Amino acid sequence: MQTIRSIFHLKKIITQLKQKNKTIGFIPTMGDLHEGHCSLMRNSRRENDITILSIFVNPTQFGPKEDFTKYPREEKKDKLLAKKEKVDIIFFPTEEMLYPKDYLTYIETLNISTILCGKNRNNHFKGVTTIVGKLLNLVEPNKIYLGQKDAQQAIIVKQMIKDLNFSVTTKVCPIIREKDGLALSSRNKYLSKKDRLEASILHKALKDTKKEVLAKNIKTSKKAKAKIKSLITKFSSGKIDYIECVNTKNLENITNLNGKILIALAVKFGKARLLDNITINKK
Ligand code: AMP
After folding, report:
1. pLDDT by residue (tens digit) across 92-115?
2. Whose CA is nearest to atom 17 of ligand 1?
3. Is the pLDDT of residue 283 over 90?
4. pLDDT tens column, 194-231
5. Closest atom of ligand 1 to CA, residue 185
6. Does the annotation count 9 as an active-site position?
7. Cβ of 135 below 6 Å from ligand 1
């Protein structure tokens, strides 16, 4: 595995790979790697000649009161894990390199970036699309791998790729979970013991509701949201940020539960804001 820390070095290697007609799979991450990230690496390894992983805690996607400085940075551990997963190249850009002092340009996907997670996290997705756009220009991958855990992020990145004519295909990989159903996340580290136990209710509530929707006991978004809310408040002290039923392609709100539905939620447990979602295909 090659570790690259400069844009010049990365570009040189990408040019060589392109000359050799190698296909490149790319996984952008903020590090503190876990099985969720590993599943993206495995998908990329299977489908491409070369797998490139980037690790960068991107300051532009954090709000002023968010956990940018506290976000876990685990370079040594991450390198070992990436090596174990047979990643070919690991790219560690720096803030100075990507956002020099005279930096002025941002990418913003309108409308879908100011709902759900974007409602209470001003400019979060503007930071995400900007960094992903920049990394796509640097890495020039054939395929980018994203996780369904951040469903809204994946939809926004896909829209940006389409709108800005990036020559890359996207694969969204399933959510990897702990045994009790909690979606793996670097932010699970912030959970107290009590909150960690209670947080498993998120997936249970989504799963139970999906069953009811498929059995036609629940037919409207209002009822689905009420059921999820009642389970979360009954079995945990988590503070609900949002629970929404939306269209899986454009994130538009749904009233009656038909067709392909994404139920997405964000719930705060202490300092940890946890995301989860489930898709339903109701015929
Ligand atoms: P992050 O390092 O949190 O920015 O995540 C990097 C990528 O890994 C994103 O595309 C995430 O959606 C994906 N990811 C994070 N957690 C999981 C998970 N539990 N299952 C699948 N993908 C994940």
Report:
1. 999 999 999 999 999 999 999 999
2. 36
3. no
4. 999 999 999 999 999 999 999 999 999 999 999 999 99
5. 16
6. no
7. no
